[in-house]
Amino acid sequence: MPDAPERANRPALSLHVPEPPGRPGDAPDFSHVQVLPAGATPRPDSATPARAMADMVYGLVRVLNDAGDAVGPWNPRLSPETLLAMLRVMVTTRVYDDRMFRAQRQGKTSFYIKSTGEEAVAVGAAFAMQPDDMCFPIYRQQGLLIARGYPLRLMMNQVYSNRGDPLHGRQLPIMYSSKEFHWFSISGNLGTQVPQAVGWAMASAIKNDSRIAATWTGEGATAEGDFHHACTFASVYRAPVILNVVNNQWAISSFQGIAGGEQTTFAARALGYGIAGLRIDGNDILAVHAATAWAADRARANLGPTIIEHFTYRAESHSTSDDPGAYRPAKEGEAWPLGDPIERLKRHLIRLGAWDEERHAALQAETIDAVRAVQREAEKLGTLGDQTFHDIGTMFEDVYEQMPWHLAEQRAQSAAEVEAARS
Amino acid sequence: MPIELKMPALSPTMEEGTLAKWLVKEGDAVKSGDVIAEVETDKATMEFEAVDEGVVRSILVPEGTDGVKVGTVIALIAGEDEAPATGEGQGGGAPMDEVAPPADAPAGAVEVGINAAQSDAGEEAIQQANVSAKAKEGQEPASLQVQPEAPAGTATVRLTVREALRDAMAEEMRADDRVFVMGEEVAQYQGAYKVTQGLLDEFGARRVVDTPITEYGFAGLGAGAAMGGLRPIVEFMTFNFALQAIDHIVNSAAKTSYMSGGQMRTPIVFRGPNGAASRVAAQHSHNFAPWYASVPGLVVIAPYSAADAKGLLKSAIRSEDPVVFLENELLYGQTFDVPEGDVVVPIGKAATVREGTDVTLVSYSIGVGVALDAATELAKEGIEAEVIDLRTLRPMDKDAVLRSLAKTNRIVVVEEGFPTCSIASEVAAFVMEQGFDDLDAPVLRVTNVDVPLPYAANLEKLALIKIPDVVAAAKKACYR
After folding, report:
1. Is residue A3 part of a domain?
2. What is the pLDDT of residues A263-290, one digit of tens each?
3. Is the pLDDT score of B128 beyond 50?
4. Does residue A12 belong to any structural domain of this protein?
5. Which structural domain, as residue segments, surrounds residue A411?
């Protein structure tokens, strides 16, 4: 290298590039994951100052143990009815994801992202927040929207971009938007939702409203400046916001070490900002519920934000365009030490005597039938393969509140083109 | 009635793929969700699942077949339930103003029972959704026959734009140890669009660097590394994501040489796909060429053919100035003749990709293909269009445009981008200033409509530039 200085007496520098514990062909290896026993991590009061609970960012809040019991100080003590409701939503989310993924393989949509293995992260939060708290999610929190009762049919209509698409054929399949369900319009540009959530929360505080905001980002996008700007503002103004970092180990092919998880935890990002940080088992829906409720209480008491790292695993591909076989060990998901969120809640309900394998199998079958039925209805309104099912005129609406003259002119031209093509 | 299984489109831009493996044989019963085959594309290997239940009646495309076009019938399934599909929701051709509003969906989603209106067989068999603007039958369209510029006698090879870009980087990295590439997914994954295929294997993790997800961060790092004596190639997964990084590109990379009194240079290439692809909607489809082309200190390149992609990327990497190199996702898979060996294309020179006498079509990037195919259509009506590929947008080769204008006296600018403050606006302005006396008609612009790009295929098609738009504008300029 022309510019390389030669200084014989000084040691040469070298660059460290993190490498995941396994690549294709290797045996899955999670020996680096320290699985703390359920119930072992203490529960500080939700008013505890951030610096007095710094150890929490290196702990792992877990409620459900291997036997299926709910143990320890974080047990939210939910009723069996609530637990069953959460189970139903998680099962629905998984079935919905499976159906839509297949629909993409059939050419009925162009793109899909499943949340398989991460259902507890979204569903647990939904049950711990108020239905009018504002959500700024990223693209694996569909379970939250389903839990809030947003119709699956509308989700499918958007995925198919058909004539029932509530977003008029404008937005990508999985980037849902519903003001009514307090769910912002998902953005494809990573990280931008985090400062927006903080801004929304600050606005709520300024207005003396009672609603809080929550946002979700993958661990990969915590590297974006947006995450750090958001933390600064959230801390300075004690914004009533929950900052969820979903550490599912993989950002497409980049393992979590590339995002900065090799030397510390993502929850530990909170320490430098003076924000409360919790690191939790993201496959344990009771831990998710309890941590979210803790952070919501803190926010509602004007005590500021919480960063929650949900430690979980992306069980399937990043999206329909991705093949994880090219970069991570085959069957790595099966070796994931924190199990499957649906199986774990099912085991707990059985342990409580409120559920059994037969009823679970029936729920599974029922849900598949119900989702397929909704899917058939949605497909009657068209799928991506159809070219003619939109009100083309709407393409020019909503660019501005009122359509400017030049767009009215372009709309007339487009209508004429369509008419000419038809005749 | 057997159900046809068609080669699936695994992504909106996929046109063909390899049927790698059949996991079923004729006579096997399959049910919904069974993996029946593996399909490979240049991006990934995918499992292909059965949608319906039935028995595999015949396999029509054997495993190991390359280049299977999307939509080709690859197998037939005899359905157990032979009820024909109702055809509802397909090709109904609802006129523009007569589309029914969406029926209200049931509250509480799936907990509410809904009567199934169709049998399982009523679910459509595999539908391929891929649409290509260009007819593929018979001869290749003019848009794919661009001849590269190279010294006489230079041998050529057929390469995709994707391969040409990779080769340019690999050759420059072999020649100069200071050159390295960094970005999201460039190493292990071989690039989000596989443009860096093979580079990690050849050059190692020191020179092919996967970054954390922070465009602003790695653009800044790149600028610093360039100041530190290296030659970074920074890949953005798309230029849409470079909006996070634009401060480093515009305020640091572009201006540092000037502000430091010429002491400190930032020889860096920012590259990646730009403009619309297929159904990636508003936030992933923006053409930023006019933005960067307005910035003093930047070189801005937007090639069309594979030969230009390779030759110009090599020039960009060797440039002492910061370069914004705008690629196009839809062009990555297109194949062209590329000169073999170390052939560079000079920065700042346009190319005449079709000679003509009646009207000049000026374009760049994917618009060049639209212009060439429009020229073929125009020739059928007796209008010979000359097509100029600007290739470099800053500095722009005004002389080439003005020379062509002097010959044809008419200019239509074709740009896959928004109309206002566009490259087309710039061409119209300098042609008016410097070529006024040669103009026999006003300069016309053919651009996308002025709305964020919608997702739905038919809306997207309407919003983007099309061959008939160019034909109509050219005829208007010719008063025909």
Report:
1. no
2. 999 999 999 999 999 999 999 999 999 9
3. no
4. no
5. 392-422
